[in-house]
């Protein structure tokens, strides 16, 4: 078992023939991901990486029946692409692209929620179930099939947590990057729910960062609903207030969303907090050996 | 991206919102013409910087004559205004807004932000304006209203009436407020705002609603479809190193420590700063070189980091995901040689081909400490910075 994606997931890549999409689709196929085709308007009928290219999602649905979409299209067109996938009845949409306008996401989020579709991202590394399927831009080599579920708002920070759990021989059930934008398709809570119900997952690592109250909300959810141990790390403990730290999400506004607030709340709710980035792995081992 | 007050007010005027008659000037002597064009016998002169708290720092003045306006402009143009919202260097004043004087009966507060929790544009209103709204929210939360706007339906009349109650507007003012709220929503959506604040929104002695200030932030991700707004960008209001970084698609924020940081990914960059602090050091900056750490980007990043005279050591932390670490190592070496880095550099490479990368670094014959473990690398950097 795992969450969101596995060997059977039938993946369609939107923006398939672009350079980033090509690079990562190639790696995904090599990893064993079941990519059934791609979409690039104007290039329908061609073959790319040995898979058919379609002009529209509608044609792709009829021809290769995908149930998940991986989006690499440029930010100005993401709203259009996400909605195209959503309206077609795709169950899972993963949007890798960064720089999507926030107001576009307000509209998109409302619509995917109405349709009951799971959207991951944008501005995220994607989702991987080690050994099964890789829908994203994460390096395959650091992952290992195992028992830890990982959720994170940041790309390379996720890799850090993944690497540490691999080095300790624990491995991962699935890893989900929810993205660092102010309006993410899925929240920590959405993914915590899935890991709690996944028998393969024995413990959950939640990597958060400053800004917003997603971690605080997740803490309360964990206290009330998650019986598996949760280990957390919050990045940005030294970030000054009011400065935007790269991610659109990572900004402390009005004194809210500081690392100290988040850590306090997480601890109150029974989450095991690693004081330092380099101690995530050892904290997991410590918690599991109790 | 931030706008100046005069730019924000021009947008307000475009959307039919009540703002004072005003002129922006860049030369002190133009204050005379500005005062005459506006008319009247009293004017308000306001230094234009991207920061609040101008009034308390002497950046806003009520003047009785054009001469006084010229004096004010002379005293501020080319100078830096320091307020509680700026750093200790303050912000450069390169323009002054001259406005007609407004007689104020009462000061209110109105703003709109994109709220992460409700995932809506939310209007925030209070009868307590002209003050620190955070304090009001903390001490008297009942005096603040939060009203979310549905993205499909837009702002409705009932919402304006609801906010008007909290603002304690009378019937005539409520009637003025309804189109105001709708137009502000329209402005917010059409111009891709991320924040809009009118503090204060005032009731004039004539009983009318009037926007006395305008603070507007634009979503940086949406600038591509706002060419008119993009032209309003004032680079003089930014930290020069931050602006240079932005030009090169690097994300940089200067801090006050002495350990320069170069990291790929915003989260890992913050995590690296935290690790430095954890081991007793102080980061000089946040710098995200992005997912593809090419030699060109690494060179530019080095230049920006080394432009800060406080930096005693540079810690490079790259998690080679898709990019191979051996290529990054070669890029780092070439960049160090190109830029002529003379201070110690600690490099931590992890991920694809990390071992090969470290080997290349140690054989390069230049002053690089190659350490694969992040904790050890941070400790080393802290030690070297002492």
Describe what you observe in this structure:
The complex is a heterodimer of chains A (290) and B (386). Chain A has helices at residues 19-31, 57-64, 78-87, 102-115, 155-167, 188-197, 214-225, 259-268, 280-288; strands spanning 11-14, 35-39, 47-48, 51-54, 68-71, 92-95, 118-120, 126-129, 133-136, 145-152, 172-177, 203-209, 230-235, 272-273. Chain A has 290 residues and is α/β, with parallel strands linked by helices. In chain A, α3 (78-87) runs parallel beside α4 and α6 runs parallel beside α7 (214-225). The two termini of chain A are 25 Å apart. The relative contact order of chain A is 0.12. By secondary structure, chain B is of the alpha+beta class. In chain B, 37% of the residues lie in helices and 25% in strands. Chain B is built from 13 helices and 18 strands. In chain B, α5 (157-166) crosses α6 (171-190) and α10 (295-306) packs across α11. Chains A and B meet through α1, α4 and α5 of A and α9 and α13 of B.
Helix content of chain A: 25-40%
Number of strands of chain A: 14
Distance between the termini of chain B: 37 Å
Number of strands of chain B: 18
Name the average pLDDT of chain B. Answer: 90
User: Structural class of the helices, strands and pairings of chain A?
Assistant: alpha/beta
Helix content of chain B: 25-40%
Low-confidence stretches of chain B: none
Q: Would you tell me the structural class of the helices and strands of chain B?
A: alpha+beta
**Basic shape of chain A:** globular
Overall body shape of chain B:
elongated
Q: Strand portion of chain A, in percent?
A: 15-25%
Instruction: Kindly report the oligomeric state of this protein.
Output: heterodimer
The overall pLDDT average of chain A reads 92
Order of helices and strands of chain A: EHEEEHEHEHEEEEHEHEHEHEH
Name the chain pair whose interface involves the most residues.
Answer: A-B, 62 and 52 residues
Instruction: Please describe the biggest sheet of chain B, giving its number of strands, its sense, and whether it closes into a barrel.
Output: 6 strands, antiparallel
